[in-house]
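ingest -> validate -> predict -> emit
validate: passed (alphabet ok, no gaps, 376 aa)
predict: started
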Amino acid sequence: MKKILIKTLTLATMTMFMVAPVFTACSSDDTTVENLISEYEVNDKLVAAQKAASKKDVAILLVAFGATWDNAFKAFDKTKEAYEAAFPQADVYFSFSSDICINRASAGENVDDNGNIVRRVYYEPRYLLHAIGASKYRKIYVQSLQVIPGEEFAAVVASVKKFMNNGYVASAHLDDAYLAQLAEEGNIYLGMPLLSDPEADIPEVAKQLHALFKDEAAQGVVAFMGHGNPDTYDTFKANVRYIELEEALKEYSPNYFVGTVDMPGNYKQDVLTRMDEQGFTTGKMYLHALMSIAGDHAHNDMAGQGEEYWHPMNPESEENSWYEFFSHRGYDVTVPVVGKHPQGLLELQNVQNVWINHTRYAASLEDAYHSMYPEE
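emit:
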């Protein structure tokens, strides 16, 4: 995997967490200590500047998987703004957990609606966590922006635990006494993904989705496309949340369905089977992304139209988009858009508020960790 290394820093960008990228690529299996240190130093300066300007002693680090689309970047911007409004006592930072998304966003993989290449620079959680620790915030909240507590969330948890164990390479390790005090006082918190609690989150998200899409459900099928994890990566057995959400939505209307692109037994073909079993054969159908943002999966796997997204010789191919798959089975398919793009869940305010409440009532790291790993 190629890694982009940020080499420049200007005063104007210190509070924006973006710099014009001047980068070199490392090999996929050899990231040097020198290169790692440069990433830490950039973030230490960025965070120190913001803390000095704000004089706040609470930090919130938002962790998304990542994206390369301009509409997704804007959704992340608005989410950060929403957190700043909800937590005026805190400095809010943003990170991507995906190296691939970081690299492609920096390289400008996609364009905006006017055809201009858009480049954004984001950092991994470890760099921001180190910088936050180096600035010695009194309280730290790490909020996952994942939808389910699956494989990607496990990576977030691991990064926070490694930070608390002072396990990252840097020009100067963090103050062990500070980390010990942070742990002893329980002042580092872990905010859970959107659909963590089946008793609280599932009914609340179902309620909010129905409030938004009940008019569509009155006209035809409303299908949500989530990501899901393959069986071998079904961390915390989180895939069941998609099934639980469909069941909760069906309490409002039988017309709701929830599928994924990566969960065995819950692909678009499985959604079609459930629709057939419930007597749906033709008619209106609306597709929505059950993901934090509308990125490649939403634009291509869900909403893709045309020959590129339909292979008539292999109608069951995973290369076929949901739009083409259901259209070729007689449904009148619509992908609702705002502007030119589908929307992700972070753009739906009352769904976004579920994440915000997870931060507001976040458990201390150790309590959250042991609830997921009770044997440790």
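Confidence is low (pLDDT under 50) at residues 1-30.
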